Amino acid sequence: MNPKKVLIVDDEEFVRQLIQIKLKFCGIETVEAGNGVEAIEKAVSERPDLILLDVMMPKMNGFEACQRLKANQETSHIPIIMLTARGDPSAKERGENAGALEYLTKPFSPQKLAERVLEILKEFESRG
């Protein structure tokens, strides 16, 4: 069985590294992107099983990147969890409307995030 792959998209390298360390410890392969434009390119080329997507980023924000990923036939099936410091209900609704499966606010527990990622990967794998 091939290891699952997660695309971590955040403009803060520290956040990407923190998530990467936790996911690798769980046996998950990771790929990184620092903005929304790069996220779309990496999603197409790397074919991740799940995307962790920050909202506030340069070049293209997470909402727009999410919409574009969901509109692209090559990436529309990939579950997306949005991670952001914006916890207001309208931002959460905007994330869900863009196609995100979940919307989690920072700061978050890396352990709980890894557990949720594993749950979603297992759920999507069982769907076939």
TrEMBL record:
Pfam families, per the entry: Response_reg
Domain Response regulatory intervals: 5-121
InterPro entries found in the cross-reference section: Bact_response_regulator, CheY-like_superfamily, Sig_transdc_resp-reg_receiver
Molecular function per GO: DNA binding
GO-annotated biological processes: phosphorelay signal transduction system
Keyword Calcium set for record: no
Domain of life: Bacteria
Keywords: DNA-binding, Phosphoprotein, Transcription, Transcription regulation, Two-component regulatory system
Entry-annotated residues carrying 4-aspartylphosphate: 54
UniProt cross-references to PANTHER family, sorted A to Z: RESPONSE REGULATORY DOMAIN-CONTAINING PROTEIN (PTHR44591:SF3), STRESS RESPONSE REGULATOR PROTEIN 1 (PTHR44591)
Protein name listed in UniProt: Response regulator
Annotated source species: Candidatus Manganitrophus noduliformans
Lineage: Bacteria, Pseudomonadati, Nitrospirota, Nitrospiria, Candidatus Troglogloeales
